[in-house]
Design a protein that fits this description.
Blueprint: H1 4-29, H2 32-36, H3 46-65, H4 70-83, H5 85-97, H6 103-129
Length: 131
């Protein structure tokens, strides 16, 4: 039976897996908000990027959830959080320029940029703690 220390060491992986699973599902259930933040400079349709990133989030969540692939999952999660950063920047810029977005929502969009740092560090911690 795993000790409390063993379980607490795996907590970052489980938390990230839950976050990525929920977000990945949303990419398919409600893709429009994700489409809106795909940087316009990317070639092709925004929906394609939305679906590909949703699949990447679900696959990464699965890798984090399974102890045998958790080390890989941590590395994938860190890379994924870095890869989606331009979309978060796009969202913040678009919302800041919009007259239809409330001030609290604009502040949240900017704060979300800083959130990437602890997400990456937690992903690397999950990788480090994996057995």
């Amino acid at each position: 039976m795993p000790s409390n220390r063993d379980r607490s060491g795996q907590a970052p992986a489980i938390r990230l897996a839950a976050l990525l699973f929920g977000s990945g599902i949303l990419h398919f259930a409600k893709p429009q908000p994700f489409d809106a933040i795909v940087p316009a400079a990317l070639p092709g349709r925004a929906r394609t990027y939305t679906y590909v990133s949703g699949v990447a989030e679900l696959a990464t969540a699965a890798a984090l959830a399974v102890p045998r692939t958790r080390r890989l999952g941590g590395a994938l999660a860190a890379a994924l959080f870095v890869a989606v950063f331009p979309a978060n920047v796009q969202m913040a810029v678009s919302w800041l320029r919009s007259d239809r977005v409330s001030a609290p929502a604009k502040a949240a969009a900017v704060a979300r940029l800083a959130l990437q740092i602890p997400l990456v560090t937690q992903a690397l911690k999950a990788r480090r703690n994996a057995r």
